[in-house]
Specification:
single chain; alpha/beta; Rossmann fold; seven-stranded parallel β-sheet; 11 strands; binds magnesium ion
Length: 383
């Protein structure tokens, strides 16, 4: 029986994780749950999964939560609460499914405690991969990707890094793959939140539409698999059936295929190296018209290029890219920034940053903070 902590349990990945757990009551038990501020959903989850500990990040919601869960359940709050839950003694696996850079400190806490980390939060590796990956190695903490592409690569690559030629990260291309520049200028929030294949939270759905999500995944792949940027290629594949591929030096390619359902990679991160049955729909290749591939267009989707640039520059630059993007997406969702302005703002903030080597997590957090302030200023100024 594996005991699991879910950070971000009310979000899309968190809820699907609980779904996986519910299907395998003999394999998994929920040890701790954490969420930003959704007390009603958290209470329902506590009632159903009976964790020993529950965290609400927003401390103004602490009392409300405390009053509604049994006394036997430990109630925590804030960043500190998240970190405590991540390092919870009884826990075997920590699913990091919070959205954004808030995942950095709890992931480090889980690594320090030697937990298996099922990582669904790509921003943590993008911003702090230089710290997280070596720490996991030192502490014997297994870092298993939940992101579907990285789960695919992880499964194809196994331990054959030395024979790897290159990684092929597939991308759906998002809902605006065929839009002209003029059409992209007219994109609304409602349009950006309609993803053709995957059902996900709002931040990542917008990132998928700008291709920033793929850019962040390039940096994530760089850290997870310790591969240089010249050997990570992005390929548009609108059907999202091939979840990624690896090409070996002998000309062999391995691809990972499946229906686009996040419960499959989530479950694999929990059962690895074993597999277990899932109730998900099965892949029907015969019923499929065709599988299509094309090159990404960085002219129309400059966010992808910005991410490569930030990754190649390295040090604190990816943290700045990520922070600027988080703030820009937040303003886009609130209707204060247009779709095409998102990469413009990110490019501006990157141009103002002098990248430094990352030595401690504070280097990352400081740059993250500065970049957020600069992004806010730039958006408030407009133009
Ligand atoms: Mg992905």
């Amino acid at each position: 029986m594996k005991k699991i902590t879910v950070l971000g349990s009310t979000g899309s990945i968190g809820r699907q994780t609980l779904d996986v757990v519910a299907h395998h009551p003999g394999l998994f038990k929920i040890q701790a749950l954490a969420a930003l501020d959704e007390v009603d959903i958290l209470c329902e989850q506590v009632h159903r999964y009976r964790p020993a500990c529950v965290v609400v990040y927003d401390d103004s919601k602490y009392k409300q939560l405390k009053d509604r869960v049994p006394d036997s359940v430990e109630v925590l709050t804030g960043q500190e609460g998240l970190c405590q839950a991540a390092a919870y003694e009884e826990t075997d696996i920590v699913v990091v499914a919070v959205s954004g850079a808030v995942g950095i400190l709890p992931t480090l806490a889980a690594a320090r405690a030697g937990k298996r980390i099922a990582l669904a939060n790509k921003e943590t590796l993008v911003a702090a991969g230089d710290i997280v990956v070596p720490l996991c190695k030192d502490m014997g903490s297994e870092l298993i990707p939940v992101d579907s592409e990285h789960s695919a690569i992880f499964q194809c690559l196994r331990d054959e890094n030395k024979s790897l030629q290159q990684i092929w990260l597939t991308a759906s291309g998002g809902p605006f793959r065929q839009f002209s520049r003029e059409q992209l200028q007219q994109v609304t929030v409602e349009m950006a939140l309609q993803h053709p294949n995957w059902s996900m939270g709002p931040k990542i759905t917008v990132d998928s539409a700008t291709l920033m999500n793929k850019g962040l995944e390039v940096i994530e792949a760089h850290h997870l698999f310790q591969v240089g940027y010249d050997r990570i290629q992005v390929l548009i594949h609108p059907q999202s059936i091939i979840h990624s591929m690896v090409e070996f030096i002998d000309g062999s390619w391995l691809a990972h295929l499946g229906v686009p359902d996040m419960r499959i990679p989530i479950q694999y991160a929990l059962t690895y190296p074993d597999r277990a049955a899932t109730p998900t729909r099965r892949l029907d290749l015969i019923g499929m018209a065709d599988l299509h591939f094309e090159q990404p267009d960085i002219e129309r989707f400059p966010s992808l290029q910005l991410a490569y640039d930030a990754g190649r520059r390295g040090g604190t630059m990816p943290a700045v890219l990520n922070a600027a993007n988080e703030v820009a997406v937040h303003h886009f969702l609130a209707g204060r920034l247009s779709f095409v302005e998102i990469p413009e703002v990110v490019a501006y903030v990157m141009s103002r940053h002098q990248a430094k080597v990352v030595r401690t997590v504070n280097d990352v957090l400081q740059c993250d903070q500065d970049a957020r302030e600069l992004t806010e200023e730039r958006i408030a100024r407009g133009g």
